[in-house]
Amino acid sequence: MSRxxxxxxxxxxxxxxxxxxxxxAGDELGMTQTAVSYQIKLLEExxxxxxxxxxxxxxxxxxAGERLAPKVAEGLGKLAEAxxxxxxxxxxxxxxxxxxxxxxQWLSRTVGDFQLRHPNIAVRLTxxxxxxxxxKEEADVAIRWGKGDWPGLTSHRVMCMNFTPMLSPALAxxxxxxxEPADLLKLPIISARDIWWRTWFAAAGxxxxxxxxxxxxxxxxxxxxxxxxMAGQGVAVLNPGHFRMEVAAGQLFQPFAxxxxxxxxxxxxxxxxxxxxxxxxxxxxxxxxxxxPEA
Length: 295
Known about the structure:
The protein is α/β, with parallel strands linked by helices. The chain folds into 3 domains: 7-90, Arc Repressor Mutant, subunit A; 93-159 and 263-290, Periplasmic binding protein-like II (D-Maltodextrin-Binding Protein, domain 2); 164-248, D-Maltodextrin-Binding Protein, domain 2. It has helices at 7-19, 22-29, 33-47, 63-92, 100-117, 169-173, 195-203, 222-230, 244-248, 278-290, and strands at residues 52-55, 58-61, 93-98, 122-127, 141-146, 153-159, 164-166, 236-238, 265-271. A 5-stranded mixed beta sheet has the order 4-3-5-9-6. The chain has a two-stranded antiparallel ribbon with strand order 1-2.
């Protein structure tokens, strides 16, 4: 169909054919009888065929109208069914975009609880470090790292992104224990070029940690850094909130209470104009209630 085909006129024609009345069709569609008559005339001119026989107090389908009416009704029905199916599928699937570390260290361990509470909402989780564009990506909500000031989005802080050195107890024992911040520099430093290291050492009173002597590795995520630390191969600068289970299991420990924060935290974000979508409300309420108070 060309873009100029009067598709709205088909909807009007369907109503008029079912009611055998322009007036009752108008009542159904919220249009005046004159507006209905105009749409029918527009369709007839486009098709080059009369669709109704106008009589003093009624309209009757013409032969062309009789042929067209069931096809239009069928087509409109299929469109209505397709839209209903799409709305249903969309409502039942929650697309979450998350940073890899948050997804692996927190969301993957707790999202099962969300599904138990909301069994009719299927979850689709994708991860990347990129900040997605909701207008271009298939995502309902996103877990982002930043300051929560994204234009057009509603944001809720879900985890403070504090950071501090963490390592395995076994590695600490190789130097007789870690008693002061400078002791960490006796051990391999993982991702030593991470700006968090310089920030933390400065806050700890170590003015010249000489981090340049360590390999300039960039491993991509805290999860990888933590895995290396748990293997006893170095000290990682991590967010303790992500690794509570590993600390409880004795795989990692935090030698100093000092933590730092560069003003960026984890946020739940979604488009402002979608804040009342039931599945988004359900996930928002769940994650805000589930996050530990100290997060």
